[in-house]
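The methods section describes the discrete structure representation at length, but only in general terms. What matters is that the chain and its backbone geometry are given together, residue for residue. Nothing conveys this as quickly as seeing an actual entry. For illustration, here is how one protein appears when written out as sequence plus structure tokens:
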Amino acid sequence: MAAAAPAAPTPNTAMRELRGDRSPAEFAVVIRRAAREIGEHVSCDARYIGRVEAGEIRCPNYAYERVFRHLWPDRSLTDLGFTPRTAFRGLLPARRVTPPTPRHPDEENDDVRRRTFLGGGPTALAAVLGLDDPARAAVPGSALPPARVPAPRRVGAADVQAVEQAVRDIREADDAHGADNLFDLAGQSLRGAYTLLNEGEYSLATERRLQATAGELAISVGWLAHDSNRLADARSFYAEALATSRMANDTALEAHVFCNSAFLARDAGRPREALRAAQAGQSAARQLDSDRLLALLALREAGAWAVLRDRAACERALSRAHTLFDRGESEADPEWMSFFGEAELAGLESQCWSALGEWDLAGDRAGRAIALQQPHFVRNRMLYTAELAHDRLGRGDLAGAAEYGSAAVALLGEVRSARIRAMLADTAARLRGHESVREVRVFLTGYDRSLAA
């Protein structure tokens, strides 16, 4: 009797839906990155994703299962479109397992580099970032709608200057008002920048300048996503900016990406990642002769150590930051660091002491940050005020926390930052039940009124 033919594989539609608009190679990068976060090593590539989606891999091995559970903790293997492992036990013969081919330690960028070197030039860059299809000229992983793509044309200095000015305008508006109302507009500017790279014609010098500017714009959009509490989007934009810096061999851009990535990782509850990013940023910045940039990166490192509760390491990083800061400004300082003065130094140090539970030191530095902050940095003034309310609450000063909370609420009409609003919401939640304190009652009344407005 002839053996029955094996059933055709059933496509895994669940995993295909999770991939969304990302290419198989981009989705593989997500999986490899998640594996490293939990200490696993999987040689995931576009071919593996294709086999999964085609149903050829009915049940992943244990390493992939752990990675998938890390990425989607609320989903079982069945929810992810796989057959439960118990269905295979005792049915499959033992087989010889061939060790995976070793991968480059920085495999996150392997596909980016390979595609870039094969295609070369700006068209490859746009393809890597998913902007080579005019029908969907949007940033990968973003909810931003497609933008109209202009006809190819010659790109010159004036076009690059326009993108550079867009970066400045976004930063100035963010300093004044926060990110919430800027994210979509900035995303349109970013699409325009990469469209110029993809569709334009230009000299090699213009290409390099445009790559650097597009990377800075991606960082700006990433920061707006961070300040709007779109942390996953922010991480995606920073990854794109890092890829751009590597392709352009732009050390200054790389240092900037790592600086912002460290801040994001700390806020996202990944202090080890924040520490690695801060240290990588310092390694890149040492080539740039900017003590102020190194000072800021040392503060990012201190913030990570503080969340890790390593006070000694935090204090060493803070000491290094102060020493570097005191050396003063230089012509090598990046333009984007205009926000980094004594107020920001005090504010970031305050965050360190707060994470360590040193409420008096944290409050002292936050108060200094408020006093030193320039008037046009409205968002940061509100941030430091909200932090001071948090610090007062940490030391048990209900009235003081409420007073600073009320001062922060007074700025809500000028600032649109989901990140700062979340801080105020936490303070308000912890103060409820203490309305017998007059200041608390005033704060909660004003806070609730602002929410209803």
Q: What stands out?
A: The radius of gyration is 25 Å. The mean pLDDT is 79. DSSP finds 20 helices and no strands in the chain.
